[in-house]
Amino acid sequence: MKQISLARGGFDRYSKTTKRAAFLAEMDRVVPWAQLCALIEPHYPKAGRGRHPVGLERMLRIHFLQHWFNLSDPAVEEALYESTSMREFVGIDLGHERVPDETTVCKFRHLLEHHELGRRIFEEVGVHLQAQGFRLSTGTIVDATLIAAPSSTRNASGARDPEMKQSKKGNQWYFGMKAHVAVDARHKLIHRVVATSGNVHDGKVLPQLLHGKETAVWGDAAYAGQGQVIAQHAPWAQDFTQHRGRAYKYLSPMQREINRRRSKVRARVEHVIGVIKRIFGFAKVRYRGLAKNGNRLFVAAALANLFTVRRPLLDGLRA
Q: pTM for the whole thing?
């Protein structure tokens, strides 16, 4: 049995379970670590004559910390030195070992990006949740949200990211990428996610967001006029996208009432987007290019699904 060092045990007389420690304890129990490690293991470096690689599950835990607390590679290294709860979540005892440095963290992230493992993590979490009873219903809510990118040209290349584009929302212009999501109307779980440049219209991605067995599709006014697309890709679905007024053709009182009723269901997608952007802090891109940020989006969507249903999952584990 490994002895606990003084660095981990300490001499503190009083303690309190913080919100961060409670959150990490919950996520530790609901994340399917074994399945996700088995997914990544074929691509992970094997021990050889040189320095042994850091344990796979440990690196995956560090990677998830980056998503939950919006930490860069150097920031997560420093946070692990500073936070006892984070070290306990990862399984690091400073009395016996050091925290993996930022270069090691960066290489692990690049491995996930190179093999497109973000998408596979998202799919594996979906399979796991369906096995726990969270099966897809026949209703889908679609939406898109802008993820901002730096518009400054003060960088090594002297140019903005060529894969990020401008998009106008209302009278305001935004620069960055778009995250298109499809959410199950019953469980509020993301079942499709697509990353595009900011100038791609929401309606163009709609076919990629439908699983085909829907009987109802909800969306905001950006999806108005997509009835034929919905009929083609989800033949049994009713179009519950919101009505949209154009130019001087204002909505009638009946159309506004219909929009209000549909918004009660459609608003559920905003809760999920709020988890990704507000709780996890993914409101701005951290990397250049759609591939890297798309990989981050897939992992964030997988973790958002686990976060959304963590309480029912924990209740099931206690039963």
A: 0.92
CA nearest 192: which of 97, 301, 300? Answer: 301
Angle at CA 248, nearest 5°, toward 243 and 252? 45
What DSSP character marks residue 202?
A: G
Structure token pair of residue 280: 């996890």
Q: What are the pLDDT digits (tens) for 81-135?
A: 999 999 999 999 998 899 999 999 999 999 999 999 999 999 999 999 999 999 9
HEC profile for 283-315?
CECCCCCHHHHHHHHHHHHHHHHHHHCHHHHHH
- What's the CA gap between 146 and 175, in Å, rounded? 8
| Cα 49 versus chain centre, distance | 37
Core vs surface per residue 235-265: b (16+ CB within 10 A) or e: eebebbbbeeeeeeeebeeeeeeebeebeee
The per-residue pLDDT for range 9-51, each reduced to its tens digit, is 556 777 888 999 999 999 999 999 999 999 999 999 987 766 7
Return the DSSP state at 234.
S
Map residue 121 onto helix, strand or coil.
helix
- Beta strands (DSSP E) in the chain are 139-148, 165-169, 172-184, 190-197, 216-219, 238-241
Q: How many CA atoms lie within 13 A of 288 on its CB side?
A: 10
Residues 180 and 194 sit within 8 Å (Cβ to Cβ): yes
User: Could you give the CA distance from residue 281 to residue 69 in angstroms, rounded to a whole number?
Assistant: 7
Burial 193-210 (b: 16+ CB within 10 A, else e): bbbbbbebebbebbeebb
Pair of tokens at residue 310: 């963590």
CA atoms within 13 A on the CB side of 173: 5
Q: Which two tokens stand for residue 244?
A: 């949209």
